[in-house]
Amino acid sequence: MKLFYRLLSSLLIGTMALICLDEYINYKIETKQFKLDLMRSAEQIGTSLSGVLRHAWEREGEAAALELLAHAQVPHQFAVRWIDQGAKSQGQFVLSADELHQLEQGMVVHGQHQDQQGEIDFFTFIPVGTEREKWGALEIKQPMVAVSDYSHKMMLRAILIILLFTCINAAILYFFMNRSIRVPLKRLIEQVERIGHGDLCTTVAFKGNDELSRLAQTLNEMCSRLLIAKEKIKFECDARLKTLEQLRHTERLSTFGLLSAGIAHEIGTPLNVVDGRAKMIIREELSPEEINECATIIQNQAERMTTIIRQLLDFTRRPKYKPAQENIVFLMKQVFQFLSPMANKQNVEFALHVTPKAEVMLQADGSQLQQVFVNLLMNAIQAMPEGGKVDISVGNLAAHSKLVPKGTLSSIIELRIEDEGEGIAEKNLKHIFTPFFTTKTLGTGTGLGLSIAHGIVEEHGGWIDVESAPGKGTCFSIYLPVKKAAV
To answer: Which of 144, 187, 218, 412 has its CA 20 to 30 A from that of 22?
Structure first.
């Protein structure tokens, strides 16, 4: 709408300027022509009177000639009087030296004078000679009231024309531009706003073959291409998510395979206990109290095996993304229990350190975070074949820390997993998050663990850093923003 009024104002201002310029030029031309007419009229009157005056002067003398000149006046049109030889001024108009010289040479002199009341008079001096070789001049004064009247009329006429032309032109331009520009532009703006809000199905059509119609056609074609691209991107995104989920599930199954040996040993012990107690009940004559004691032991061991198997099943299932309020310390302790058989077999000890009053609650998918912790802790266990200690520390980053991105409003949980293993070579550090990159022997890793862990952390709005040196161990730092649950 602003563009419409700007165009309309520009056209009206341009039109008014042209009309004013035209009226001004006409005024100048008419004024100049009026002065030329006054000059011609004065010269004709002067020429006629000079002949009569000279004849009367020669026959009847100077007094008769001047008396005759006094009767030659025409009120409101012109006044004539005689100027003697050598006189520079006989009235209102002052003759300059050059003008006196021109009169001596027999040339006509013109000029104008404005009095104190603002009235302008046009003067014409016509040289007249006598037989006594005495020369003088006729001064013909013509009032220029007609010029002033004409100026006022021209001004009123110009104002009237400007007003009429402006009104008519404004009405024509408004209705034309309103129909041909403003309304189509409004529809195009609404279409662009709909596109901005994701509505790519609505189209806009204009009649005609002008620029706005072509723009509308281009917008419609753009919407069609965007709709096709949107569907293609959605299809590719769904396929990518499906593939990523399959990779994550594959990594879970791979981890499950590596844990099988430790889990088998963990289940074997309670199975032996159950078997022994069952044989005691069958083969020996036991008192009711002893039978009850054996049954209780069998029940406890069965529950222990059930818990281990449930943990395995939960880990190998393909989970759906379900964010909830989770305690990151509790999640880590569950992972400790899950990995304890493998850690005990490798003679690896887990040590958890939590900063006092640290904020450990966050909005996240606990199952996915546990997969991250499992992958990192298993890497730490495998990096220490001779055994060792894995330090896990949980705390919060300070708001002014250099690690915190600018504009971050929520708190950041920092979780560090540091082992005493062999470390990672510097040339491999930049590749550790690349899918299928691994330095492990065949059958001990897929090369997907760190890549999947990196993707899961990024999906939760965080990031992973790694510090390592050969022979000095490796430290993985996980940073997760604290997101409160929606009320």
So the answer is: 144
d(C-alpha 270, C-alpha 149), whole Å: 126
- Given a contact cutoff of 8 angstroms between Cβ atoms, the answer to whether 256 and 315 are in contact is yes
In this prediction, residue 442 carries a pLDDT of 45
Question: 120-129 and 135-143: which strand pairing?
Answer: antiparallel
Summarised one tens digit per residue, pLDDT across range 75-91 is: 767 788 777 765 544 45
- Residue 386 backbone phi and psi in degrees, to 5: -95, 10
Fold of 2-163: Beta-Lactamase (3.30.450)
On whether the CB atoms of residues 206 and 213 are closer than 8 A, the answer is yes
Cα separation, 126 vs 142, in Å, equals 14
Q: How far from chain centre, in Å, is Cα 366?
A: 39
Residue 30 to residue 86: CA distance in whole angstroms: 36
Contact between 39 and 128 (Cβ < 8 Å): no
Q: What is the pLDDT of residue 393?
A: 93
Q: How many whole angstroms separate alpha carbon 113 and alpha carbon 124?
A: 11
Mind giving me the DSSP string for 305-333?
HHHHHHHHHHHHS------EEEEHHHHHH
Q: How far is CA 191 from CA 1, 10, 181, 218, in A?
A: 16, 27, 15, 12
pLDDT reported for residue 443: 46
For the chain, the domains span 2-163, 320-487
Note if the pTM is more than 0.70: no
CA–CA separation, 331 and 360 (whole Å): 10
Classify the C-alpha dihedral 312-317-320-321 as positive or negative: positive
| Residue the block writes with tokens 């975070």 | 369
- C-alpha distance across the termini of the chain, in Å: 42
- Distance (Å) of CA 18 to CA 4, 15, 355, 387: 21, 5, 82, 96
According to DSSP, the β-strands at 348-354 and 388-396 are parallel
Residue whose pair of structure tokens reads 């056609």 in the numeric block: 217
**Radius of gyration over every alpha carbon of the chain, rounded to an integer in angstroms:** 55
- How far apart CA 295 and CA 288 sit, in angstroms, is 10
**Beta strands in 221-364, from DSSP E residues, in sequence order:** 324-327, 348-354, 361-364
Task: In whole angstroms, give the CA distance from residue 103 to residue 95.
Answer: 10
Q: Could you tell me the strand order of the sheet in which 109-114 lies?
A: 79-83, 135-143, 120-129, 109-114
pLDDT of residue 89: 44
User: How many other CB atoms sit within 10 Å of the CB of residue 298?
Assistant: 18
* The listed CATH number (3.30.420.40, 3.40.50.620, 1.20.1090.10, 3.30.565.10) that belongs to domain 320-487: 3.30.565.10
Pairing of the two strands 412-418 and 463-468: unpaired
